[in-house]
Amino acid sequence: MDKNVLTYIKNKNNEIQYDWAEEDFRGTERYKILYEDIPLEDLKDIFAYFHYQFNALFKELNSGRNRLNAEPSRYYLRVLEEYKSLKDNLQETDYTFEIDKLYENKIIDLDKLIQSSGGTDIPDDFERTPIIDIRPIFKLLSKNDIKNGLKLFQKIITKLYDKNWELGKTFQSKVRYKSFQNNLLTWETMLSDDEKKLLKNNWKDIRELVHDVFGSEVKIKNNNVQNIDIEKNKRLNQPKVIETSSKKREINNELKQRFSDKTIEYNFKYKNILLKGVPGTGKSRLIDTIIKNQLNLKDHYETNVLRINVHSASSNADLMQGIGISSNDDGHIEYKEKQGLILELIEKATFNPNQPFVLVLEEIQENSLNELIGDLIYLIEDSKRAKGYKADNKEYSYMELIDNISKQSIEDVHSIKLPSLISQDKKSKKMIIPHNLFIFCTSNYRDDRKVIEDNLLRRFEVIEIYPKYKDEVKEFNNQEVSDFLKALNEFIVKVLKSNGEIHPDRFMIGHSIWLKVEDRKEFIRAFLKVITEFKDIKDMHFDDFQKIVKDLDFPFKVEKEYASYEEWIKVLQKECYDFLGERSLDNK
Asked: Is 464 a member of any domain?
């Protein structure tokens, strides 16, 4: 069971209870008895809380009033946002849930209706919502409910291609998905004798994949369909596979390239670096400085540097090697073998050993570096890199070049094998990491996961980057603004440390947004970003934020006595942005 999910649920419950009023506690306790079957105590509290809040909202709307005032509008809008966040984060986990269909439809309507400012007008034709008080509105879904059988069946086919191309192709063209009910997976087969033998010889792998994808308790029922002509067979089955390959990114075993001795002089010994810290501290800028000044790539940035912004949807298939699935004009599925940008850069660096090449992965906290670059993690250590060989300006295929390097190298050349995912060519491609490839990563802090996995720690130089001030950064225009930022960060650390925060430096504010601040309006714009950071990203209670700023000396006159984030933000935004004038707001 994923510990990150359990931690998220616990933290979400703590976050919700932090703002509870006495009536919230009593209301939630009333509904908690409906969720006795929920296995986690924290999730019981959360479901009971939202059940109570939704019923309170629906009762308010059912009262016949034609308007919801500003304060309750904002309150319930926040409840809806919290609910959507919970549902999104628990999607595809062991705690995926659904809500009563009537409530779900009403929540969708209210999400569009309720306004964040100025109150909410209730339409005359707004339908009353039946209130559910005596049964649960939330239900945890089983895996059978979550997954679509056909989609999972296609996943098995893709995995079979990874293991055995011929087996995957046979399954795609001759095995037809029928149903998945009550832990019974049923398919139909239309096989020749040779194809039956192929499935029989690989039955153990097929069964393991089915259990891996559908669940260990799943049973398989095979209906062997006889006396069906080949054309009807094709019509009944899944769309056929058309083999294609992406020539642009493919590492071609036969294509000849020059093993170039062209040289770019450089003197920088750190091959793998991770710069981590709060946003706006100049991590990316430092990498650019290293690339241009230490590695002398100012005039070769476009050809020798690959920069990738990592996000939660990034995958190994995108960056390294994978199978692309699309349909052609005839409606047939095409499986395309994709070679990712990272492998292309590695190939280029291997053919040009006297030049530095750089892979920059920005914001790796959004994903797992282990999952993104897979087996290459093993090769990025300096002791595993290929070194001690010379370019001879002769032409080689990639595989010939690796053989040449292996013969020249003074040490054993470590490599990994990259299987051909679509082509029937059984020969694997070798991959090495050359000594002239630099891997630089940046990471912002995350509260919900490790920034870097344990097995990567020894392979990277991990460098903490902290906010800087005018004595360190000459671009600072205003000494008083620099002094304010320094004091702000000192108060942040002090207040959060007193609140029991283990790593209060993770909450500090970077210097980049303050560098060009010279007047009051520019200062307010920068300070608004700080307020938003603590309100929406760091989820800090306003009382704690007030403790941080109450004794600060501001370089420009700024009123600090406000009762909420919202009140303060509205005043500062109005001063800062002309288009938010009274008339504009009234006409909105």
From this structure: no
Residues 6+ apart with CB under 8 A from 517: 477, 478, 481, 523, 526
Q: Is residue 377 part of a domain?
A: yes
Q: Do 115 and 81 share a structural domain?
A: yes
Query: What span, in angstroms and rounded, lies between the C-alpha atoms of 107 and 561?
Result: 36
For residue 104, give both structure tokens: 């779900």
- Name the band, by pLDDT with cuts 50, 70 and 90, for residue 240: very low
* 310 plus 184 within the same structural domain: no
pLDDT at 59: 86
| Residue 465 belongs to some domain of the structure | no
Mean pLDDT of the chain: 79
* Element (DSSP H or E) covering residue 464: strand 461-464
Single-letter amino acid code for the residue at 162: D
Any idea what the Cα angle at residue 164 is, between residues 162 and 168, rounded to 5°? Answer: 80
Which of 439, 342, 334, 424 minimizes the C-alpha distance to 381? 439
Are 8 and 134 in the same domain? yes
- 3-class secondary structure, 341: helix
CA distance 325 to 303: 29
Report CA torsion sign: 285, 290, 291, 294.
positive
Close Cβ partners of 65 (under 8 Å, ≥ 6 residues apart): 122
DSSP-assigned states of every residue in 281-297: SSHHHHHHHIIIIIS--
Angle at 8 between CA 3 and CA 9, to 5 degrees: 100
Domain boundary among 141, 176, 210: 141
d(CA 492, CA 554): 15
Question: From the CB of residue 181, how many other CB atoms can be counted at a distance below 10 Å?
Answer: 10
Owning domain of residue 317: 257-457
The number of beta carbons lying within 10 Å of the beta carbon of residue 558 is: 16
Query: What CATH number does residue 160 fall under?
Result: 3.30.300.180
Total residues found in the chain within this entry: 588
Give domain status of residue 42, yes or no.
yes
Whole-angstrom distance, CA of residue 554 vs CA of residue 541? 21
Could you give the residue ranges of the DSSP H alpha helices within 63-179? Answer: 70-90, 101-113, 143-146, 149-163, 165-174
Last residue of some domain: 426, 457, 488? Answer: 457
Give φ, ψ of 28 to 5 degrees. -65, -45
pLDDT of residue 442 exceeding 60, the answer is yes
The helix or strand, by DSSP H or E, that contains position 305, with its residue range, turns out to be strand 305-309
Per-residue pLDDT averaged across 425-454, rounded?
72
* pLDDT value of position 245: 35
Q: Judge if 425 and 504 occupy the same domain.
A: no
